[in-house]
């Protein structure tokens, strides 16, 4: 990236000249590359995961078990973002936490590369922990690079950072997916470890360009709090070890003994967090009203992500078994479908950004509730579209690849009407007391959606059946219509937030 560094103008009081990254603080290059390589490792492994779980040369599981594991893994990544933020705020600070996260992720991928089922699940756990630690803190460090919220470069910096995410996500299935599917699954997972190693190395080398604020621990634990936290952690760890030892030695252990508690926690914890905030008596009436409105957005987002994230499990497993994965006679790996979304995001995100601004100038920009309703209707439409290739497969034929590309396209358009808007409204509606926690609360919507998918799969529901797909599509449409019908009420509850 050295060739993209240019000389910035000399600021008053600044000795000499300062190298920048496309006119932004040089530390942005460090964080851009770190996130790009971390996403390369994450999305590469994610593209292989459900395929490896069902493959005869992999773990040879059923589609339902593979979907359950995939969904539980995703829900854990987003669930752990909140404790990841807490760990940086109270223990290590963002920079050291991200360095630790990178090492844990790399170790997790290396563990996945080992050819044993037990080590595979340990590796998944390590990657989930590391991703939770990193996800919560790297965006915070991007914000630290700028002088307050009024810095005119701030939004552009996050846009460049977002491009890094999607570059990594786009390249990963093409590289890691191809090697994993066509050469060796475990070499594919090892490549994911290599990607994270590159990202970690350049982060450590370039961390001198980060803002000194990223080294600070905002609210460090006292000695008493540290001791209490360690005691509680040790107690819960001991309870888990004893419980699973009893279950294991009794001979009744199955994978559901692990998956079901996690999926239940993925549903109960988001509800508990929202209830705790809503019942906080320190919040004034305006904040209480905003939180009531936010619950509408949270539930809508959970329904959206429940369907959307099945693009990497339900739809991918359908493609592996029942699609003609070729274009003009040229065959391609199933994992390549996972590159469709990031390349479409990069192509369409600027269009949507321009569209909202253009509509706002004319006073016609849809409200947040209407945008959420659009996202739900579109993700529902994507699963109605899914019914066509399912019907083709039921007729004994292979569905064309373009059917699946169309599903991912519709989901991507839906994502762009809901996900960036959700991130924005979360920061706007957050009560001051919970300002630093609300982004973690938003991620819990993903946890709730994926946990629902995981719970259905652990119950033995085949999500690739026409009836189930149609039911999910109808659910999303009903949710979208409900949000649209109550849009004026939600707008009133939002108060001065627009």
UniProtKB/TrEMBL annotation:
Subcellular localization(s) per the UniProt record: Cell membrane; Membrane
Molecular function terms, GO-annotated: dipeptide transmembrane transporter activity; peptide:proton symporter activity; tripeptide transmembrane transporter activity
Primary localisation category: membrane
Transmembrane segments: 43-62, 68-86, 98-118, 124-146, 158-179, 185-205, 234-252, 258-277, 289-308, 340-360, 372-393, 399-418, 439-461, 467-486
Topology versus the membrane: Multi-pass membrane protein
KW Cell membrane (keyword) present: yes
Gene Ontology terms describing biological process: tripeptide transmembrane transport
Gene3D superfamilies linked: MFS general substrate transporter like domains (1.20.1250.20)
Keyword terms, alphabetized: Cell membrane, Membrane, Transmembrane, Transmembrane helix, Transport
GO cellular component terms listed in the entry, alphabetical order: plasma membrane
Protein family per UniProt: Belongs to the major facilitator superfamily. Proton-dependent oligopeptide transporter (POT/PTR) (TC 2.A.17) family.
PANTHER family with a match to the protein in the record: PROTON-DEPENDENT OLIGOPEPTIDE FAMILY TRANSPORT PROTEIN (PTHR23517:SF15), RESISTANCE PROTEIN MDTM, PUTATIVE-RELATED-RELATED (PTHR23517)
Protein name, entry field: MFS transporter
């Amino acid at each position: 990236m050295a060739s993209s560094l240019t000389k910035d103008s000399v600021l008053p009081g600044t000795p000499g000249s300062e190298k920048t990254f496309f006119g932004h603080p040089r530390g942005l290059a460090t964080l851009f590359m770190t996130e790009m390589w971390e996403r390369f490792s994450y999305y590469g492994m994610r593209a292989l995961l459900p395929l490896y779980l069902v493959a005869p040369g992999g773990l040879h599981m059923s589609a339902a078990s593979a979907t359950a594991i995939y969904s539980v893994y995703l829900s854990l990544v987003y669930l752990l973002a909140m404790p990841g933020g807490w760990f940086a705020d109270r223990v290590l600070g963002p920079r050291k936490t991200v360095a630790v996260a990178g090492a844990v992720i790399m170790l997790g991928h290396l563990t996945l590369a080992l050819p044993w089922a037990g080590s595979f699940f340990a590796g998944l756990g390590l990657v989930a922990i590391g991703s939770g630690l990193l996800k919560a803190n790297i965006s915070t460090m991007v914000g630290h690079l700028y002088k307050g919220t009024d810095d005119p470069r701030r939004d552009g910096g996050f846009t460049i950072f977002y491009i890094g995410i999607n570059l990594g996500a786009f390249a990963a299935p093409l590289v890691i997916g191809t090697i994993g599917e066509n050469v060796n699954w475990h070499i594919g997972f090892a490549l994911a470890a290599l990607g994270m190693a590159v990202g970690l190395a350049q982060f450590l080398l370039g961390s001198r360009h980060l803002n000194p604020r990223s080294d600070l621990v905002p609210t460090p634990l006292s000695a008493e709090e540290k001791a209490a936290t360690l005691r509680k952690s040790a107690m819960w760890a001991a309870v888990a070890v004893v419980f699973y030892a009893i279950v294991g030695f009794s001979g009744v252990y199955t994978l559901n003994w692990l998956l079901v508690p996690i999926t239940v926690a993925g549903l109960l914890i988001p509800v508990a967090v929202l209830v705790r905030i809503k019942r906080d008596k320190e919040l004034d009436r305006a904040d209480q009203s905003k939180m009531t409105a936010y619950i509408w957005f949270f539930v809508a987002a959970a329904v959206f992500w429940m369907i959307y994230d099945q693009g990497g499990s339900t739809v991918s497993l359908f493609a592996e078994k029942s699609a003609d994965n070729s274009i003009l006679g040229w065959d391609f790996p199933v994992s390549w479908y996972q590159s469709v979304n990031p390349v479409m995001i990069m192509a369409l995100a600027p269009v949507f950004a321009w569209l909202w601004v253009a509509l706002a100038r004319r006073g016609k920009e849809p409200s947040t509730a209407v945008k959420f309703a659009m996202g739900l209707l579109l993700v529902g439409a994507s699963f109605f579209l899914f019914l066509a290739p399912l019907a083709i497969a039921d007729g004994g034929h292979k569905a064309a690849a373009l059917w699946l590309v169309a599903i991912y396209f519709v989901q991507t358009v839906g994502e762009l009407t809901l996900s960036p808007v959700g991130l924005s409204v979360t920061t706007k509606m957050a009560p001051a007391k919970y300002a630093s926690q609300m982004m973690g609360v938003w991620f819990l919507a993903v946890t709730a959606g994926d946990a629902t998918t995981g719970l259905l799969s652990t119950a033995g529901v085949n999500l690739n059946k026409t009836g189930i797909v149609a039911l999910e599509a109808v659910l999303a449409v009903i949710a979208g219509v409900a949000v649209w019908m109550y849009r004026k009420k939600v707008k009133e509850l939002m108060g001065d937030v627009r």
